[in-house]
């Protein structure tokens, strides 16, 4: 039985222009909620940390600036092995896919991974699929 990774898609609402929409995927370890007994609040704090970190780390990228320039149109999950595998797959892409793996301290537990705003490139979809990511369903 394989465990799955879940993602939250923060895609901006579709625009009337022909330009592809930028998206930002956030991968959350669902097993922390289900098996480890974490509350939704602490888990969402991990999402906020990872998202803030990747936006800060990629703040000079045109894609990040464009994504953040369209705040009014934004729409607002994984076990440890899966999330670490996804981080490795993204780092191995050529060029590497900008992301941030948030590790909760002092426990040293990887909890969440946020990808920099992107255009849903095939290499990202392939990495998400290989890591077993699926859309979060409450």
From TrEMBL:
<dbReference type="InterPro" id="IPR023476">
    <property type="entry name" value="Pep_tRNA_hydro_II_dom_sf"/>
</dbReference>
<dbReference type="InterPro" id="IPR042237">
    <property type="entry name" value="PTRHD1"/>
</dbReference>
<keyword id="KW-0378">Hydrolase</keyword>
<dbReference type="Pfam" id="PF01981">
    <property type="entry name" value="PTH2"/>
</dbReference>
<dbReference type="InterPro" id="IPR002833">
    <property type="entry name" value="PTH2"/>
</dbReference>
<dbReference type="GO" id="GO:0004045">
    <property type="term" value="F:peptidyl-tRNA hydrolase activity"/>
</dbReference>
<protein>
    <recommendedName>
        <fullName>peptidyl-tRNA hydrolase</fullName>
        <ecNumber>3.1.1.29</ecNumber>
    </recommendedName>
</protein>
């Amino acid at each position: 039985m394989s465990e799955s990774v879940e993602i939250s898609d923060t895609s901006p609402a579709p625009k009337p222009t022909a330009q592809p929409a930028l998206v930002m995927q956030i991968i959350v370890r669902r097993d922390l909620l289900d098996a480890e007994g974490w509350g939704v609040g602490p888990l969402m704090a991990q999402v906020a940390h990872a998202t803030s970190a990747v936006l800060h780390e990629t703040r000079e990228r045109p894609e990040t600036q464009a994504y953040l320039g369209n705040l009014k149109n934004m729409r607002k999950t994984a076990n440890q092995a899966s999330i670490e595998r996804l981080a490795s797959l993204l780092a191995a892409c050529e060029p590497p896919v900008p992301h941030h793996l948030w590790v909760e301290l002092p426990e040293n537990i990887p909890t969440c991974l946020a990808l920099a705003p992107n255009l849903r490139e095939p290499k990202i979809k392939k990495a998400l699929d290989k890591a077993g990511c699926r859309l979060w369903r409450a």
